[in-house]
Design the sequence.
DNA sequence: TTCTCTGCAAACGCTTTGCACGGAT
DNA sequence: ATCCGTGCAAAGCGTTTGCAGAGAA
């Protein structure tokens, strides 16, 4: 329990530091985003937290996610059309979506081209790299060989 | 006029070859996608063509775009949440969206990392690279220096 | 009290679905 | 006559907005 409490405390401090009033709902939503690596949708966040916060509304989830995005501590990913997924900001990385199991995996970006500040005379401030294919776990399951 | 007719003929042949019955609406929609470099939304396609095809319906635009995507001759881009843009498939390239003027510009992908067939043991079949920033035209307008 | 956060209900906008008409074979 | 494409109208679904009540300062 101690571990959880210090985690909650850390989140609280972080939100305060970003000028965000750390309400209970906001704490729990940010904690969910920063702990798990599941890149949840708004709907998944709602359905996960509603078990422990029975009064939670989707409006609050959306309000909170939009606030987090405005404050720059959370990013919305639209790897596939028609579903936005969210993640807490960490270091730059690419996303890999397995078309077989649907998993979304963080990947390193190992490419000097993607560090360029200018490309073709255009000033680059944001980079989003999405890969799709079959993840190693699915390949094993189907008896395919990796590499 | 000759040029346009041969262009229409070329599109007709292409669609036939892909197993798509080249109806007038489909022809015009594909022509729009393959000629212009504007990466239009479904709505923009509708509003562009309605001038010349007054009976056109949005349903047909959506039907057609979905058909094209299923046949693999058109790709839907979701550079920004909540708007899907379409482009005819050509060679792999990145997209740059200017946050100032909203223009979407095709860019070369100059990066061996993005040609890798496997990354971290995952088999990569699709790559989507979106950059955002200020395009060279806007930088000139605001008196910023490129490079 | 005042200000902010929450959450219900309704509105919104894009996309899909149901279905009937019309054209082509 | 059959099949396929079209397009109207309605439904669907994720997200936002309006607003009133609860809670903190």
Sequence:
């Amino acid at each position: 329990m101690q571990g959880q409490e210090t985690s909650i405390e850390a989140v609280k401090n972080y939100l305060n530091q970003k000028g965000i009033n750390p309400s209970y709902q906001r704490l729990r939503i940010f904690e969910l985003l920063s702990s798990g690596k599941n890149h949840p949708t708004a709907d998944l966040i709602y359905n996960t937290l509603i078990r422990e916060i029975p009064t939670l509304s989707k409006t609050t989830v959306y309000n909170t996610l939009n606030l987090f995005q405005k404050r720059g501590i959370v990013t919305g990913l639209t790897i596939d059309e028609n579903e936005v997924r969210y993640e807490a900001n960490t270091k730059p990385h690419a996303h890999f979506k397995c078309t077989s199991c649907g998993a979304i995996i963080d990947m390193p970006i190992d490419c000097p081209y993607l560090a360029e500040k200018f490309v073709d005379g255009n000033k680059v401030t944001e980079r989003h790299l999405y890969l799709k294919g079959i993840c190693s776990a699915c390949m094993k399951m189907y008896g395919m060989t990796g590499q």
About this structure: The CA atoms of residues 100 and 134 of chain B lie 6 Å apart. The beta strands of chain B are 74-80, 83-88, 94-98, 104-107, 118-119, 122-134. Residues 21, 23, 25-26, 55-60, 63, 82 of chain B lie near DNA strand D (CB under 10 Å from a C1'). Chain B touches chain A at residues 76, 78-81, 84, 96, 98-99, 105, 107-114, 118-136, 139, 144, 146-147 (CB under 8 Å).
